[in-house]
């Protein structure tokens, strides 16, 4: 099992958001999480990645056999969990290059490998830039500093490619993207689908799922999964909206 | 008169000095002797104590220039006109041959003496700057940098001032005068350093810069001294019409370090760009005072100062902008951001605006904060440890200013040294070769 979330409850600033979330993700599977605004989609990603202020109050999360909730944020990342942020953070003064190298080295160190040489890393980073259609000059700039919305999202995908995580959580990576950028993101994700790596794709729009075809679709509402199905569920949601499901919650 | 004022005057009497500086020295000595010693109630010395100076007993001049000390100090790797001073004494062996426009006061010809007499002590107002009066009283050796109209100094002038630890504390007086005629250009790097961890000396430094019509200067003042040195210094600048001053300053070390920047906008279209970084730690105290006098219309000034204060260190930043009634269409900006990395660190920041003209744009801001939680989380979510993330963000906070330093050699010199201050291996930050 890649990820096993059982009856997870979580609160943010004293407000209960997740109220009994359960999902099982096996290696190689792509799960789409859909749901209306405020249903807890982003909270789920934040709790899983260990964002300060997002507190799990009950339930359990097992990641590759480890108790995820007991791990520090950075341990989760090194163990292979990756969250592509909905709103990537701008950090002026820290160059994208040094940030990416620090991240890659942290993972290598965890795996008992030496730090990657600067020359090798530069080569790798440039190739990866090309794959997500970012100019190599972005490596020199501050982390996400002055990047457009689409550039920030592509930078997230680039990090994902460099870190080669086992579990990728995409938090509304498609929001605010035009079709071309969406295609780049989807191509990046699809290229990383290797039958072992798992994905949790959180999205507000069915559109993304035309490009990244999921094995399962879940609807999150009121802090828990109210309906699961295959990719046809997404189309049904597109046609009928979420209203009919929210009525089923109670 | 306090003991220290008395000691300083006795030291002045011991100096052997050129006759043509006598008038300035006498004037300086009398201003110094008559001045009320600043205390806690003196506005511009409110947050910094001068007590360490009063405790500085048996202060004397250095008797010889120490080559060994020089080897302990790494210099900026730069093809430059180099002047090296140790404890205030010129070290000819370690200095470059000087071109026509660069001369020590001691070697000045009649014309240069006249130029020095015309400007030295005239850019600075020694009635308002006590330690400028002391510098005048101690005026002896110094460096004149004079660039003729329409000329550009081919190489940067790099002045290295090294303080050494001595049995008895040593006083050093550093004096620089820059005179750029119309359309002239020059770059000057002043580097203050010390040879070892234990320092007991006192440095009083003063730089005066006259920038003529449409002339421009790039000026650096790097203060990387060690823990216990005492340093009071000032950079005083007159900008004539369309003149431009691009300054960068950095300070670390010293239990008493006070640096003043005074910039007078005297001609229309003058422009000031001044970035500063201060990084006191342990029990260091660093005090920057800047004052920009906008006296005429259409001038612009932009100051950005950032500080990271750790341990039980203390920093003071006072940024004054004075816009005179006739200085319409002034654009003046001042930003001061501070990062406190310990509960016992202290920052006193005060932007001071005095605006007497009505058609001006003036923006100022000062912030004091800890590191941004979201940025920390972002780095950690990529596997970077919290300690490394803190280091990266702290360094990033000042690296933004370092990235803007036009002289690459200065960037290359400072970056690894600052990185090591934050306890990080240097290959991790900014040392990756691009292209």
From TrEMBL, chain A:
It comes from the Bacteria. Gene3D superfamilies: P-loop containing nucleotide triphosphate hydrolases. The keyword Iron-sulfur does not apply. InterPro entries: ABC_transporter-like_ATP-bd (IPR003439), FeS-cluster_ATPase_SufC (IPR010230), P-loop_NTPase (IPR027417). Keywords: ATP-binding, Nucleotide-binding. GO terms for cellular component: cytoplasm. Residues 3-247 form the ABC transporter domain. GO terms for molecular function: ATP binding; ATP hydrolysis activity. The keyword GTP-binding does not apply. Belongs to the ABC transporter superfamily. Ycf16 family. NCBIfam families: sufC (TIGR01978). This is Fe-S cluster assembly ATP-binding protein.
TrEMBL record, chain B:
SUPFAM superfamilies: Stabilizer of iron transporter SufD. Residues 14-158 form the SUF system FeS cluster assembly SufBD N-terminal domain. Residues 168-397 form the SUF system FeS cluster assembly SufBD core domain. Pfam families: SUFBD_core (PF01458), SufBD_N (PF19295). It comes from the Bacteria. GO terms for biological process: iron-sulfur cluster assembly. PANTHER family: PROTEIN ABCI7, CHLOROPLASTIC (PTHR43575). Belongs to the iron-sulfur cluster assembly SufBD family. This is Fe-S cluster assembly protein SufD.
